[in-house]
Specification:
heterodimer; A: alpha/beta; 3-stranded antiparallel sheet; 13% strand; B: 433 residues; mainly alpha; 4 strands; globular; DUF1501 (chain A); signal (chain A)
Chain lengths: 404, 433
């Protein structure tokens, strides 16, 4: 198979590729996948989306420490000028984010402030649906990266999640990314044969069959990536076992480690989804949030350093920030606009977007200054080289976060 | 098309998944009599269990009591989900139960926001009592359904501060479809719906006249002092409602492909005469295009699981607590848990259920189902001669036949009934129908 044909085959498979598989072509080996590295456009970017579930408190992550109304609104949980890691003379990072501070100083971290959407919803589920579908009016069943996958040909290996279940983010209208648990998965015996399409069967039934072939290819890709890598003693973040059969999410570090292995192996995947939960800090927030942000900082910084020099961009977001005023339990309740972090080698570091006012509020909450779709549009066009309007329902705004 | 295949197709669509014996009986009765039996069930369903009602704890306001209350409230929703799954499996009037599930996906209301099991179950009861007859009366009941009101912020909709959520979805998603109303209809419709609130203590909807907008409204070209009933009756009587309902029912019971013009006209006409849902349903099941829709629907996860449990002789209520938990968590892995639709738009359909992620969940659940299968079912497979076991499996799962591909996969497991069941349940032929 010549390079061009193989590239088309890989990028546009999903439907076509699996059909060819069924017709007798062999499944991909790591060698095939490594060989595709040169087939990707030299600057083909990889996007790693980090979801913080629970609503991370943005005001205690990127802290407007010099604003008197910040200190007034949050007695007991506010950080003062001496505690924060300064970004400028008004803004500082949570003390747990030393690695992010270094990346910021190096010009590799963009901090986008005030990101949100009109008519904010304070339900975790609804708001997360809105963020993942990129539809603030009526979040449907397709995610923005799933719709990108539709336009990119639909091969599930192009969009991979290292989470137990597929996030709505990666579900497209005609295709879906692959959920690959980080732990060793017991493979179901005896089903490989279902992957072959039978002559004359109805299209949906053929598609059900192709799922088996897709699952097999994903299994194979991951197994070979694992086998190709020497065991990394540092991979086991926090000493926790990433394999959990209890539905708990694997640690962020373990997920990102697998992403790094895939990128280094040059697999076809262009978008990865990883996540960390537990940010719903209604009570005794300060200590809890520092632990969680420390995990994010350690895992993401290590990943960014390992990926230095490669066209890999990381974006970190949560479904909402929290209310400006602390509650009576030294915590904060569900709020609205918050920060998005974008980092990587090609990123224009620095502060982006306008810090929302802490006094001109919407029913006690920040008013967003940057529409979240502007951030997505930047990532789609700069990292995934896709027309954002096609994926974001005609949205034309865009925040330029990468390039010079 | 052979008679048995036509009857099996009818039962696969009109029930959650027929047993071989049900197909035998229907074959003896014939197609028309089976449609009659399906669409005209007796009043009581001896198979259907009754939900065990529980008293809500008092609302004393200490933090611990509130937490306790919330925990119990969550537990009640879980109990309600398990209860309904059991009812789906055991109900003898399968089409009646499947229509309740259809309307649940149509007026897609989620316990995620409603939170109170009693309100969710009250809505199911409304589907049961009113979802099969006069559509206008049904729509009038729905606009005052407490769960729907909470779900779409109806209690926040007042003369001073109208909330358009319910009015918009009523027209867009529940009765007319997009393009059959204007933004000014939404605004006026919202004003018609003002004044309904929820009495938290009794879990009932209550009309508060001073919150209602009494002024005249113009909706869909008609001017009058519409209230909730008037607005519901107006939209339910629109010609567009007939077309819309025909499309939605065809989409879930017949085919994910676009409805052919001829079918749409026939079903709309059948509905329009009395604006009766059963008339539409009967027309659908006897439509000349219906038998040709085989293979055009992907079973929704709940349909797949409930059908499998029926065929394997497994009753959820008789499972252990642990097993019931596995059942619900398996459905969660498949992205379809009853009482929790993802949004007011309801669940997706077709290829959206065919992902590598859902396949992994299906593989796990199928393995558990096979292990839970009634001994009699496994024995029946064992009793068949080895060479005939794949056919016995097809009969058990009411699959018309296996492709050569699947036959050769099954051939490797004919000596292990549990394996055979597991493979049959995940086979492409069983996943799609």
């Amino acid at each position: 198979m010549d390079t061009l044909t193989r590239r088309k085959f890989l990028i546009a498979s999903g439907v076509v590729g699996a059909g060819a598989l069924a017709a007798g072509a062999t499944a991909y080996t790591l060698k095939d996948i490594l060989a595709t590295a040169g087939d990707r456009p030299a600057d083909a970017g990889t996007l790693v989306l980090v979801t913080l579930y629970g609503g991370n408190d943005g005001l205690n992550t990127v802290v407007p420490y010099a604003d008197a109304s910040y200190q007034d609104a949050r007695p007991g949980i506010a950080y003062d000028a001496g505690e924060v890691l300064r970004l400028d003379d008004r803004t500082g990072l949570n003390p747990a984010m030393k690695g992010f501070h270094r990346l910021f100083t190096d010009g590799r971290l963009a901090v986008v402030r005030g990101v949100g959407y009109p008519k904010p919803d304070r339900s975790h589920f609804r708001s997360m649906d809105i963020w993942q579908t990129a539809d603030p009016v009526r979040p449907g069943t397709t995610g923005w990266l799933g719709r990108w996958l539709d336009t990119a040909g639909g091969d599930p290996r192009l969009a991979v999640s290292f989470e137990p279940a597929l996030p709505p983010l990666l579900a497209g209208a005609t295709s879906a990314g692959a959920a690959v648990p980080t732990g060793a998965r017991r493979r179901a015996p005896g089903v490989t044969g279902f992957g072959a399409e039978a002559a004359g069967e109805p299209p949906l039934q053929a598609r059900a069959a192709r799922c088996f072939a897709d699952l097999d290819r994903i299994d194979q890709m991951i197994t070979e990536v694992r086998d190709a890598q020497p065991d990394d003693p540092d991979a086991d973040d926090d000493g926790g076992d990433p394999a959990t059969g209890t539905g708990g999410r694997a640690e962020l570090g373990a997920q990102l480690d697998l992403v790094a292995q895939c990128v280094e192996a040059g697999v076809a995947t262009r978008a990865f989804s990883v996540s960390l939960g537990g940010f719903d800090t209604h009570a005794d927030e300060k200590q809890l949030q520092e632990i969680l942000l420390g995990k994010v900082d350690k895992a993401v910084t290590a990943f960014a350093d390992r990926m230095a020099g490669r066209p890999v961009t990381v974006a970190v977001y949560s479904e909402f920030g929290r209310r400006v005023r602390a509650n009576a339990s030294d915590g904060t309740d569900h709020g609205t606009a918050s920060n998005v972090f974008v980092l990587g080698s090609g990123v224009r570091g620095g502060l982006h977007g306008e810090q929302p006012s802490l006094t001109d509020l919407d029913d006690g909450d920040l008013k967003h200054t940057v529409d979240f779709r502007d951030v997505y549009a930047g990532l789609l066009s700069d990292v995934l080289a896709t027309d954002p309007a096609e994926v974001l329902g005609g949205w034309t705004g865009r925040l330029a976060l990468t390039g010079s | 098309m052979a008679d048995r295949a036509r009857i099996a197709h009818l039962l696969r669509r009109a029930t959650f998944g027929p047993t071989a014996e049900e197909v035998d009986a229907a074959e003896r009765a014939g197609y028309p009599a089976t449609v009659e039996r399906l669409t005209q069930p007796a009043d009581d369903d001896p198979g259907a269990p009754v939900f065990p009602a529980r008293d809500s704890p008092g609302k004393d306001a200490t933090r611990e009591q509130r937490q306790q209350f919330n925990q119990e409230r969550r537990q009640q929703v879980t109990t309600a989900v398990e209860w309904w799954l059991d009812r789906m499996v055991t109900a003898e009037h399968q089409l009646a139960e499947k229509m309740v599930f259809f309307w649940h996906g149509h007026w897609a209301t989620s316990a995620q926001k409603v939170k109170v099991a009693r309100l969710m179950l009250g809505q199911l009861q409304t589907f049961r009592e009113h979802g099969r007859g006069d559509f206008t009366a049904f729509a009038e009941r729905m606009v005052r359904d407490p769960a729907l009101i909470v779900w779409l912020d109806g209690q926040k909709n007042t003369v001073k501060a109208p909330n358009e959520n319910l009015a918009r979805e009523l027209m867009e998603l529940f009765t007319l479809g997009i393009g059959n109303y204007t933004e000014s209809d939404v605004k006026a419709g919202a004003r018609a719906l003002t004044g309904w609130t929820i009495d938290r203590a009794t879990g009932t909807a209550r009309f508060v006249p001073r919150r209602h907008d009494r002024r005249a409204k113009t909706i869909l070209g008609q001017t009058g002092d519409f209230d909730a009933d008037g607005f519901a009756a107006l939209v339910a009587g629109e010609p567009a409602a007939a077309t819309f309902l025909a499309q939605r029912l065809w989409f879930r019971f017949a085919s994910n492909d676009p409805i052919p013009d001829g079918v749409r006209e026939r079903l709309s006409a059948a509905f329009t005469a009395r604006r009766n849902v059963d008339d539409l349903l009967r027309a659908l099941l006897t439509d000349p295009d219906f038998p040709g829709t085989g293979g055009q629907l992907v079973k929704q996860p709940v349909e797949w699981a409930v059908g499998a449990l029926r065929q394997l002789g497994v009753r959820p209520a008789r499972l252990t607590d642990q097993q019931r938990k596995q059942l619900v968590s398996g459905l969660n892995g498949l992205d379809q848990v009853p009482l929790r639709p993802p949004s007011v738009g309801g669940w997706p359909a077709g290829a959206a259920w065919l992902t590598t992620s859902s396949l992994q969940a299906r593989l796990r659940l199928a393995e558990q189902f096979a292990a839970w299968a009634a001994p009699a079912v496994k024995n029946r497979l064992k009793a068949a001669p080895a060479a005939g076991r794949t056919e016995a499996l097809a009969r058990l799962l009411v699959v018309d036949g296996w492709t050569d591909r699947t036959r050769s996969v099954l051939a490797g497991a004919t000596d292990k009934p549990e394996q055979l069941l597991r493979l049959g349940l995940v086979s492409p032929e069983y996943t799609v129908h």
